[in-house]
Amino acid sequence: MKTEELNFSAVDLVTSAGGNVGSMSRCLTRLGVKFQTKGNFDPPSGERPVILPGVGAFGTVMASLNENKFAERLKAMLKGGTPFLGVCVGMQVLFDESEEAPGVSGLGLVSGKVVRYRATRVHKVPQIGWNKIVACREMTGDIKEGFVYFVNSYYACPREPGAISYLADYGGAFCAALQVGNLTAFQFHPEKSGDMGERLLKEWLSNVSK
User: Fold this and answer.
1) Residue 88: active-site member
2) pLDDT tens, 53-95?
3) Active-site residue among 27, 100, 175, 191?
């Protein structure tokens, strides 16, 4: 599918969750997607799809999101149906809590918690590199499997297995991506995953532009 064949919406790219905004910005530019950067003191309006890329610790990111009551505004928008894509920590903050930051509440939009990988002789923590994802339900779309790029020590465990759209394996199966209503999230970095990552972004953009 060629990029010019898709009717992409403009998107709001949220800068409040730490690094990685630059690489996502460059990826959207390559795809020909118009975007505006938004943050705590210039929040999204909810009229355009929202992308929240994140790099860093769960507690630090939640502290940033809570500044100027941005987390409350974001939750209201997403509960109101604004299409959302979370990446890496941008996925993890959707959950209730994380082992990385005991006592710190996440956004609580997806029921479950974030846990740490258990290191083994073969599987080091963090996971850094390419890993295969496999679609685990019909609604995921046309992309059934492929290799994408991960950098993570923690992964999300949705309470409802039906929330999981892609699985991967790293010392055991884990949730690599989820979809719950208007919420989509990737533990991996699509903007760093070559053709596979761009295909996944195009698919999401196509779906939310309808």
Assistant:
1) yes
2) 988 899 999 999 999 999 999 999 999 999 999 999 999 999 9
3) 191
User: Is the domain defined by 3-208 classed in CATH 3.50.50.60?
Assistant: no
Residue 186 in contact with residue 176, Cβ under 8 Å?
yes
Residue 81 and residue 42 in contact, taking contact as beta carbons nearer than 8 Å: no
End-to-end CA separation in angstroms for the chain: 16
The model's pTM: 0.93
User: Where are the chain's structural domains?
Assistant: 3-208
Give me the pLDDT at residue 210, please: 61
Q: Which two tokens stand for residue 105?
A: 């509440």
Question: Sign (positive/negative) of CA torsion 167, 173, 176, 179?
Answer: positive
157 belongs to the catalytic site:
no
